[in-house]
Structure formats: C-alpha cells, structure tokens
Specification:
heterodimer, A: about 190 residues, mainly beta, SH3 type barrels, OB fold (Dihydrolipoamide Acetyltransferase, E2P), six-stranded antiparallel beta sheet, five-stranded antiparallel beta sheet, 16 strands, about 55% strand, B: alpha+beta, BirA Bifunctional Protein, domain 2, 9 helices, about 35% helix
Chain lengths: ~190, ~325
C-alpha cells in the first residue's frame, strides 16, 4: 500500500488511521518548546462522517486509504439499499441505506452521483453540488409579507430533504438547492 | 495592549517602536547589543530542530542559525559580560500559527546573575509588550499533576502512552520524553491564563544547554519557560559551561538525530572551545519570541500577521 508522510498532509486527502478510512479536514503543525514536532489533524470518517482529532509525530508515515470515486446513476431506491449503475459498463452496485443515512435525502432516480468505494466496496456518495427538486410540502405563502425577501419557511422536497425556502415559493414549484449546505438557491 | 485588531501599517509602525523599546530597555541596563553571523560553517545541534543549509562556497556548506546562542557564547568567551541580540533565526519546516521558518528572536545573556533575577528581567521585558499583570512561578511536575493527575517523573512509559493515546496521539515511541513532549503541548494551553506563568524544574533530560541540579533526589534542568495565554514566550537557562558535558550532549543530540532518520550535524569545535573558556564563569541567558509577543500585543491569530512578510506571502 502507498504511504504518505505527515509533512505532505493536505485537507481533502484520504488516509488510514487506526485501520479506519478518514478524509483530512484540517492540518496543524505543533511544537512544544524544546520537544518533538507533531502534526495535529482533524479527520472525518469516510463512512460515519464522525469527526475526530489525532496527533502524529511529524514525519511519520501513514497509509493512503484505498478509496476510489466513480460516477454512477441512481436506478432506484429500495427499502434497504440504493441501486446505482455505471453508464459506460452498465455495472450495477448496491449501497446499504444505513451507510448513507445522513445523505439519503439527496437521492433521486436518474441523477448521477459520485460513488465512494473503500477497499472495493461502495460506502457512500457525493450528490451534485446543486440539485433541482420539487417542493412536495410547505405552508402556503402569506401575501404582503415579502418585503424583506428574507422571511423563510420550512419545506419538504421530493427526495425527503427538509429545507428553508422564501415565503413566496409554493408547493409544487421546482427549486435549486445547494446540497453542501442544504440551502435554497433560487426558483427554477 | 491593543484591544482591537490593528491594520498592517499600524502593526509595522508598532514593530519598529517595539524594536526601539527593547533596545532602550537593554541600553538602560548597560547590556550591549551584538550581531553574530546568521550563516556559519557549523550548526546548532538539536534533535528536534532542523537546520536550513546552503552552498556557502562551491566546496563549503553553510548553516543558518536556529538561534544566536552559539555565536553569542563565543562572544562571551572573548570577554563580553552582558549582551543582547535581536535577529532573525531559521527553522526548517516550521510553519503554523505559532511558527514561521524565519522569525525574530530576542536573546540575552547576563553574567553573575540568578535564574530568579533573569525571570524578573524577562517579566519586565514582556510587560513592555503586554502591560503589567500578575505572574506565578510553577513547577513542571505540578503542571502535569494538575492537568493529567500523574507525576511525570514516576509515571511508567505505559501509563504515559495510555494518557497520550486518550488525548489523541496516534504515534508510539520508546522514549518517555516523546510522550512528555506531546502531553506538555496539551498542558501548555492552560498556562498563563490572565497572568504570566513561569515554569521551572524541567526534567534533566530536557536540559538542552542548561545546567542541571538535584532536589529531593530528582535531577532537574536549571531552566525556565514563560507562558501567556497558552503561548510559550521565553526559554531561560542557567548556562552550561562544562565543556565535557557540553560535548557529550551535542553527541547525544546527534545520536537522537540518527535514530530519527535525520542527518547528524558537524560539531562546532570553536563553540566547545568557547565553553571551555567560560568554564569558571557563571552565565544566565534567555531567548524570547519577539513575533509571538507582537501577536499577543495585537491579538492576531498567528505570528504571520505581525511579521513584515510571512512565509506564505513571500
């Protein structure tokens, strides 16, 4: 397996720490007065998304996590798993929904996602940064209360995502959402 | 002290003012300003400090100093007594909020002084930057007991590694000092809160270039560190002037460097010769991080914001 030194750590890299795969979120060089230099890293678990902090001796090498990403289209969602297909090879894979619980509200049939494979097994996905989704549930807007344009109300989208939308947008409309933050961008 | 964050111009003007204030501080005390070379044929040897080197001539490697200590001690050996230096120093690979590859160090030496007098003088120097405030003197082992409920001198390697692991350390080592160093970094964060904290009685294994002493059957380094707001600001020594012990320590550091897969460095014999000349004299010295003082004075996030041009901007 390929290794990487703490001196080459950058955020976004995928590394293996304590036999678990993590994405590096943040790197910091620390050095007490007369002592050894250390590298303090904030790590996000590739599967559980749990964030931890670890400190390593500067210059120490760790394994690069065996992580691959592939674009695949969502065919359908079942009770226990989501099924994706590679548009080129027509290979199909399944991801158990319990692995992707925190992201499942961005799953929509026929959309292409970046699927994350760890040691050959699909463990997660990244949705497109912006998605266009239908509002399936929201309270009707109150006319005359739109002066500031900053008044928001809760809404549920076709994928189950819960977002805050401007008060003038109605049920049945399609909106553009930023999936990184879950924020409303515009009407479509 | 500045309450609001200052603009770059204000910081640079204040930097110049503080250079003047430091020079006045020492002039009043009759401490002479010196400027030893930044580049030498030999390097300070410390297992944990990596030196920048360059081709000084086509045949000769030159090393950038990581502190002016060796050069200044050579001047002490020539007969100077009380001296100070304000200069840039270099440490390879050290980039972080509190670190820059090139930074400004203030270092001074006092003859026939004492560690407590030196702490007092260091305190007054720091007050120039941060204003006066209460201060305390605490022992290294008591800081450990308070933070981790262990005695750093008694705890086994196993206990140390267990506590370090519970605080997020992933690396392992056979060296006690490795774990102590990691844990110290955590303990430091609680030092110097609303006051200046001087820490004394470091383990003899962390003596660097200071004398050691025995107290209650324990061997300690005769040195102190000073902290404010969790930031290490100063490192003061009762200077080692035993040439045999000095040579042994340099060789020991080189062995540690080899065990860390680092290149051993050439011994500076003119430095050892200087120590020999100082062997019947008594000196105290301290190094202060000028940029860190400026950082705390201006409430910035790191030292990069208070230097003229930081590494990332250079």
């Amino acid at each position: 397996m390929a290794q990487i030194s703490t001196n080459e750590f950058k955020s976004g890299q995928k590394v293996e720490i304590d036999q678990e795969p993590y994405t590096i979120v943040n790197v910091e060089f620390v050095k007490p007065g007369k002592g050894q230099a250390f590298t303090r890293v904030k790590l996000k678990h590739l599967i559980s998304s749990r964030v931890i902090e670890r400190t390593l001796k500067s210059g120490e090498k760790v394994e690069i996590a065996d992580v691959e990403e592939k674009s695949m289209r969502l065919l359908y969602k079942e009770k226990e798993e989501a099924v994706f297909m590679d548009d080129v090879s027509f290979d199909q894979i399944e991801i158990p929904l319990n692995l992707i619980e925190d992201q499942a509200h961005w799953l929509k049939e026929d959309i292409v996602y970046d699927i994350v494979f760890y040691k050959g097994a699909a463990v997660g996905f990244t949705p497109p940064t912006f998605m266009e989704l239908l509002i399936t549930e929201t309270a009707p807007g109150v006319r005359g209360d739109t002066a500031s344009g900053r008044v928001l109300k809760p809404a549920i989208l076709e994928t189950g995502a819960k977002v805050q939308i401007p008060i003038f947008v109605d049920q049945g409309e399609k909106i553009k959402v930023d999936t990184r933050t879950g924020e409303y961008v515009s009407r479509v | 002290m500045f309450q609001e964050s200052s603009s770059t111009i204000e910081i640079l003007q204040d930097r110049a003012a503080m250079f003047r204030a430091v020079r006045e501080f020492f002039e009043e005390k009759g401490v002479l300003e010196v400027d030893t070379p930044i580049l030498s044929k030999t390097a300070p040897i410390d297992a944990n400090i990596d030196i920048l080197k360059t081709n000084a001539t086509s045949k000769q490697v030159g090393y950038f100093h990581s502190s002016p200590e060796y050069g200044m001690k050579k001047l002490l050996a020539k007969g100077l007594g009380d001296i100070f230096q304000l200069c840039h120093v270099y440490r390879q690979g050290e980039v972080g909020a509190l670190h820059q590859i090139e930074f400004t160090m203030l270092e001074w030496y006092r003859q026939n002084f004492s560690l407590s007098k030196l702490m007092d003088e260091t305190k007054n120097l720091i007050f120039l930057f941060l204003g006066s405030m209460p201060y305390e003197i605490v022992k290294y082992e008591n800081v450990f007991k308070k933070t981790f409920q262990i005695d750093p001198f008694r705890a086994s390697l196993d206990e140390l590694s267990k506590i370090a692991r519970s605080h997020g350390l992933s690396s392992v080592s056979e060296q006690r000092d490795f774990y102590l160093s990691f844990l110290w970094d955590i303990a430091e964060e609680n030092l110097g809160i609303d006051r200046l904290s001087f820490v004394t009685n470091f383990p003899a294994s962390q003596a660097a270039l200071s004398k050691t002493f025995k107290e209650n059957q324990r061997e300690y380094a005769s040195r102190f560190e000073c902290y404010f707001d969790g930031v290490e600001l100063a490192n003061g020594y009762h200077e080692l002037t035993d040439p045999v012990e000095q040579k042994r320590r340099l060789e020991e550091e080189n062995l540690k460097r080899i065990s860390l897969d680092k290149e051993p460095l050439p011994l500076d014999y003119s430095f050892l010769h200087a120590i020999e000349k100082l062997s019947n004299k008594d000196f105290f010295g301290v190094a202060v991080g000028f940029d860190r003082l400026m950082m705390l004075r201006h409430n910035t996030e790191g030292i990069e914001e208070v230097v003229a041009i930081g590494w990332n901007e250079s």
